[in-house]
Amino acid sequence: MACLYALVSPGGSPGVTTAALALAFGWPAPVIVAECDPSGGSVLAGTMAGHLPGGPGLVEHAIEAGRNPIAAASGLASQLVPLDAKRTRMLLPGLTDPRQAAGLSAAWPAVAGSLTAQPYDVIADCGRLDGGAGAPLAVISAASTVVMVLRPTLRQAWAARPRVEMLVQLLGGTGRIVLLLTGAGTYPAREIAGALDLEVAASLPDDSRSAAVLSDGERRRGRGGPGKLVTAATAAGQALRKKAAALTGERASGPAPVLTATGPVGAGPTETGRATPDWSAGR
């Protein structure tokens, strides 16, 4: 069964988008990355380094979902952009202007319904968790698993505490919430877990080279297989899928067929001549 995973952060730039992309490139099945961050999407300008033209995305999908939820859910593929040449990892581009977020407040429930109706897993990058207007709370509420991404530092744990309380209130408990630690810090995972009274599902290491490829579109050097970040993200993805499967009573499924867009998605990675990261070697 396909699941929706919502990634949030306490702020302070722990790397939610980079974590979402690393998870996607290590995911064992086709997956959609949905940029639901109210502050705006960054993958087209970052990972794809501006080599793909702007086009349909979250705003257009939200409008369609508000008008006809069933048609929007079935037609989501036409709004997606491929992240890899095999089109097994697709992107729903986010807002191009954070001022658009306020206008999405009423549309988030329809977007959430569309994302949960997909036949593939969806990783929603929801950015910093705040209580302001435009926050994708409906997407977070609809997720099978909510992942708080933070660095293992006192500052991040301190900022995470009230946001965990927000999630507990929104979700009715801690059962669907896990922690994903990123980079180096001053505290071990068990202490962060104890301080927030939540399970640490996995940790992602510092890997500046892979992070630069994912966040800023720097060209990948060498053919040594996946870097430490994507290797760790592969294990993290497996842990998250097991968590979701345990909550839903389903068994985590294996690889599924290629995810292909059914409508115009703009120029794909190979059509622009840009080499997107191929992390499949060595997995």
What does this structure look like?
This protein has an 8-stranded mixed β-sheet, sandwiched between helices. It is globular. Mean pLDDT is 83; it is low at 254-258, 260-275 and 279-283. It has a single domain, classed as Rossmann fold (3-Layer(aba) Sandwich), CATH 3.40.50.300. With 283 residues, it is an alpha/beta fold. Helix 1 (16-26) crosses helix 9 and helix 2 packs across helix 4. The protein is built from 9 helices and 8 strands.
Question: What would the keywords be for this entry?
Answer:
283 residues; alpha/beta; Rossmann fold; 15% strand; disordered C terminus
Tell me the span between the first and last alpha carbons. 23 Å
Compressed to H and E, one letter per element, the order equals EHEHHEEHEHEHEHEHH
Low-confidence stretches: 254-258, 260-275, 279-283
CATH 4th-level superfamily: P-loop containing nucleotide triphosphate hydrolases
* Helix/strand structural class: alpha/beta
The total number of structural domains is 1
Helix content: 25-40%
Shape: globular
CATH architecture descriptor? 3-Layer(aba) Sandwich
* Name of the CATH class: Alpha Beta
The strands making up the biggest β-sheet line up spatially as 3-4-2-5-1-6-7-8
Largest sheet: 8 strands, mixed
And the CATH topology?
Answer: Rossmann fold
Radius of gyration: 17 Å
Overall pLDDT metric:
83
Provide a concise account of the structure shown:
With 283 residues, the chain is α/β, with parallel strands linked by helices.
SSE diagram, text form:
Layout: E1 4-9, H1 16-26, E2 31-35, H2 58-67, H3 69-74, E3 81-82, E4 89-92, H4 108-116, E5 121-128, H5 137-142, E6 145-150, H6 154-171, E7 177-182, H7 189-196, E8 199-204, H8 208-216, H9 228-248
Parallel strand pairs: 1-5, 1-6, 2-4, 2-5, 6-7, 7-8
Antiparallel strand pairs: 3-4
Helix pairs in contact: 1-9, 2-4
